[in-house]
Amino acid sequence: MGYQYITDEQFKRLVDFQGAREFHLHKDRAKRDKRMSLTEAVGQFVQDGDIFAETGFSYVRAPLQAYFEMIRQGKKNLVSIGSPMSNTSYLMALGLVKAIHLSYIGVEMRGNDKNFARVIKTGQAEIVSIWSHGAMALGFKAAQLGAPFIASKQLLGSDMLKQNPYVKVIDSPVGANSEPVCLIPALFPDVCIVHVQKADRYGNAVIEGPAVNDIALAAASRKVIITAERIVPEMTIRDASDAAIPFWYVDAVVDMPYGALPGCCPGHYYWAREWWEWLVRICTPTAEGTKGFFEYWVNDTKDQYDFIEKLGGIRFMDEARRLMEAAQATIDDSLVSFAYQEVIPKRD
Prior knowledge:
The protein contains 13 helices and eleven strands. Among the domains are: 12-148 and 187-255, Glutaconate Coenzyme A-transferase, CATH 3.40.1080.10; 149-185, no CATH class. α3 packs across α4. The protein is globular, with a radius of gyration of 20 Å. Strands 1, 2, 3, 4, 8, 9, 10 and 11 form an eight-stranded mixed sheet that branches. A three-stranded antiparallel sheet has the order 5-7-6. The chain has helices at residues 8-13, 17-25, 38-45, 64-73, 88-93, 114-121, 133-145, 214-220, 234-240, 273-283, 287-299, 304-311, 313-327, and strands at 51-53, 78-81, 97-102, 126-130, 149-152, 168-171, 180-185, 191-199, 205-206, 223-231, 252-255. By secondary structure, it is of the alpha/beta class.
């Protein structure tokens, strides 16, 4: 196969339609109380060597506090996939992720992320396959639909086909003219963690705003952890008929206010812009800078409340709430300022 960090079994498991089907057919779908702590959920359902799917949209409604718990627990040999997958950058740099199915890594608003290039160039991690956003999304959708693949024009005319051992090109068997199409296989990650605005104790989950690929990923993944800003009574979701993710996909539910920090959670809080600038623009140029940054922000904090205190406590959260409300036009935007000063680190 020619890869250093991914096993033949891991390579095949991503597109193992029959194996995934059998797993899902025998999965416990009981309607039961699935609440547990974040430590318990990550410890039980994120295992070394798992194919791990990143969710949300980079720093928007991503389960960042859950990713930080993975760092604290020292998970290793993970294979990452996602569209987009910006958080995979620091998970690679810290040694959790050794192989990736790449669609996109970057945070251009805050500068050029140096982690990714350094880790790949030094051989600390490897790229197994390259995808467009759309092609990878179709792979997750195929898994959700129970289809072994989806035929598409995605990737045709792109050199990504040369770097993707999973996608096959055939002449279309339908239509007046025989034109080439890509067969994009169903993609089955082992585990994903989805942060939502609200969920009930059974795992019915509500996503407010764009779901990105999270609904398809919840169906495709063998194990699903939900972290939620609020745990609500079941009837409040049933009455609204707005559960994006039904309980039978879900293995664990975590009561996790502020679980998307230092990213943003639509309807709740804006993102910590300075934090990301420190990470991406200032700390990622060196491995030591990245490790020191996460030592302070993750290993030296035990939960999201410790994290908030370092961000600025109640003053930061109040400002983050006001910025989100202004961004969503639910308050007078003249009451807050989106002005932003570039972070300038002190020099010795």
